[in-house]
Give the backbone structure.
Amino acid sequence: MKELERIKIWCALHNPIEIQPASGNKEKNISMAAIIGVEQPVVANAQIAGDWRLVLAKDDALRKVLSAGGIQATPEQYEVLLKAFKDSPATGCTTVMDMARISTGFNPAAPLQEGNYSAFIDYVNTLTSSPFFEVYPSSNEEYRRVNEDWNRVVDDIVNYYQGITDADRGRVRMSLYQLIQAAVSRRDSWQSQTLFVQNTVQATNNNLIVFIYQSNVAIIEHGRKRTSTETFFKITKIILKFYVEHWVNYAELVIKTHIKLVRDWLDENSTQGALQFSAVINDESCLNIIPSLADSIRVGNPNEYWSSFGWDEFDPQIQGLLEILGWNCSNWEGPESVYPLSYYKSWNELTLKEKQAAKKLNYCEDNWNSPSISDALRSGNIHIYWKKYEWNKLDINIQNLWGILGWTPEQWNGKLLVYSESENKKWKELSPEEEQAAKRLGYCEFTWNHKIIDANLLE
């Protein structure tokens, strides 16, 4: 069967207008059966990682075209709409995912909806059997934790994520923290089973990789004055690669069926009702809307944390503090040439008003203008960016990544006049651990292989 014919049939089967909701789709069964198959709350969250600013920019361009006339517009307007849809494969990806969600009846907005767990399993099976994705082997991991706090539990889950930057890890960490806090029961000898679903679309180097992380958790807490807890996790990771290279050929068949903009997908595939849900079973005072001042403390590097968000994601309070430091909607996501003067000041050079605003944003003298992976990616030359800082200016996480690449404080600061062995390796010569560390520092194969030439500019 020709590929376009498969696309046409799939779109017809999963047309949100034609199908009956919650009809289910059992085209293919995969290792999902390994998850505990009991009816339980399904709390979901959606994120865009990697080049998310570019993804949203293309998606917003498509939204403007849609608002001008939509699919029923004049032939000329339709051609403009189709081109914008073809130019935004991420919107194509979220559209297909939304068609699968609707056709299976999975509802992220209703964690306790009857049949929602089974619908979620059908949703994943529908995606893995669709002609839009290449399916990578899934993986499972199980572990138990006794008397661990939630921060440790969240760390364990986040450490299972691969292929995303530290800035994106911070975003995922905060969203998972909210999900868990929204789903656990009130203290007092309880047991809860919940499925946490983290949908992450990673957009990098003209690729779209969908990671569906499913964390099945059973929690038991005993006692009143002196409590003991036992947590059982079963994590399943499904990886799907969207066929970006074929999207221009598939787009016209999809656009006649459904369009789901990325921003709308993010909103509708996250458990927005988690606050109301938690009001029934938990103290909602622990929940913070992302991004938040409290969460910037948990991440530990405020520069890294704030840089991972777009200006429009900040509430007026945070925008007001950043505006005191000279930031605005134009320069926040712009090149370094338009950054405000405060960015280049030392802590002692800040005015009293600027320093007060910085402190409210959880900066201090030690972390003010501290190097971050977000800034490294925006610098234009990653290697020069990192090498301009002394070792003690790097936070412990970044030091550990450079340590994996063989660097010591003495080598980094030039006291030994000896570079690490990885410095002269090509990308393909790096060990898997070294390659992963380099990726987390913001490198890709091209920037790594060209860093030796670029390093001459430092002299």
